[in-house]
Amino acid sequence: MTTSATRSLKRSSPGRSSSPEVQIVQADGSLIDPNKKDHERSNGAQEISVASGTDQGIALKLSSIDELVIASHNVNSMIPLLKYLSQPRLRFKTADTATYHRQKRRKLENSSSDSSGESNTQPLPLWNPTTHLIRQYQPHVICIQEVKATARDTDLIRALKLVPQRQYTGLKLNEQPFGYTATWSLSHAKKGKNFGVVTYVRDDVKVLSTREVDWDKEGRVVVTELDGVAIYNVYALNGSEFPWNDPQTGKSRGTRNERKREFNRLLMEDVTRQRENPRTPHIILIGDFNISLAPADCFPRLRTEYPHNLARQEFNEKIMQGMQVVDIWRKVHGPEARGYSWFAIGKPHRSDAARVDYALVSEDAVDRVKSIEYLEKDQGGSDHCPLILKYNLKSSL
């Protein structure tokens, strides 16, 4: 078992079968096998970067999980945290630096523990969006949107692997006895805004395959196949009448509103193909869709003017029906319930809010959903709050 190294598993995209190739990456990013390149992609294959956060002496076992806990959060940038984690002194190159950080962490824990003696802080001067989620829910899957790193940011990508590991969440061993696997899709654009999504899967969960989608180069979708279900981590476009620039050519191609609708159609087609895979008969799409689906999803009002009304109508009547999915929060909580995931910064809580982050679950898997909730008090450094979905891998029928 590796504790200060990173494993990378190369898996095929859906429909292809291959044995995973394992390579060892040192904590500073260098490879034990110099003939392999870190995070190399070719022919549609996807690198799964596994940063081990599991302590020696703890036997990891691929679990037969009945209830799957999925967390999702648009964090509105992880760049400050990633830059901090990418500093060489944090990579544990020597015993001296490892000792330094153990002492630093112990000092922080001792100075900020609650009455029960449990640590309530992280050993970093920056907000780590995974800390609270892991402490409270120990999710099997964590979907993060708006990472804002690019596919060219080698150091930040290495840091991306470290974010949910116990050395950097500040959690105790009994709170987090496992590490997480990081799979990402990042922007290939040479200029303009950066987006990016990353999905972290607990090391005790068996992952069949992961992939990006070939119809998006902005870092908006990554797909994770588990036994029986495919999880789409989605960060959809926020539409406007400004030009949309193709990330590969840099040339303008219509408006962002037009690309938003095209993105939704391409997503629907991708889900339709994925559903044909016998390994994943059920689909969960979770993340920031940048569309409020109904009047109850916004306060003080729903944007009903063109083109927002057109995108919403098409998403409700064509896209969701084509994907055969249900807005599971609305299904569980009822048509009049008020729950929000986005909150205007600088205004009183819920005075300007919208529900644009949600989970879409296969119609034939609705009975598998145990609960879904928004953590409105846990925004952290973002203008969005996290979403927690509990899903039974075994049908209740």
Task: Outline the structure in words.
This protein is of the alpha+beta class. It has a single domain, classed as Deoxyribonuclease I, Chain A, CATH 3.60.10. The protein is 22% helix and 26% strand. The protein has eight helices and 20 strands. The strands form four sheets. Strands 2-1-3-6-7-5-4-20-19 form a nine-stranded mixed β-sheet. Strands 8-9-10-13-18-15 form a six-stranded mixed β-sheet. A three-stranded antiparallel β-sheet has the order 14-17-16, with no helix packed on it. β11 and β12 form a beta hairpin. α1 crosses α4.
Name a few traits of the molecule.
six-stranded mixed beta sheet, globular, alpha+beta, Deoxyribonuclease I, Chain A, nine-stranded mixed beta sheet, 397 residues
Mean pLDDT: 80
Structural class: alpha+beta
Q: What is the number of E strands?
A: 20
- What CATH architecture would you give? 4-Layer Sandwich
Number of DSSP helical runs: 8
Largest sheet: 9 strands, mixed
Helix coverage percent? 10-25%
The CA-CA distance between the termini, in Å, is 39 Å
Number of domains: 1
Poorly predicted runs of 5 or more residues: 1-60, 91-101, 107-123
CATH class descriptor name: Alpha Beta
Work out the radius of gyration: 21 Å
Q: What's the CATH H-level homologous superfamily?
A: Endonuclease/exonuclease/phosphatase
| Dominant shape | globular
**Which H/E pattern describes the elements?**
EEEEHHHEHHEEEEEEEHEEHEHEEEEE
User: How are strands sequenced across the largest beta sheet?
Assistant: 2-1-3-6-7-5-4-20-19
For this structure, the CATH topology is Deoxyribonuclease I, Chain A
Strand content: 25-35%
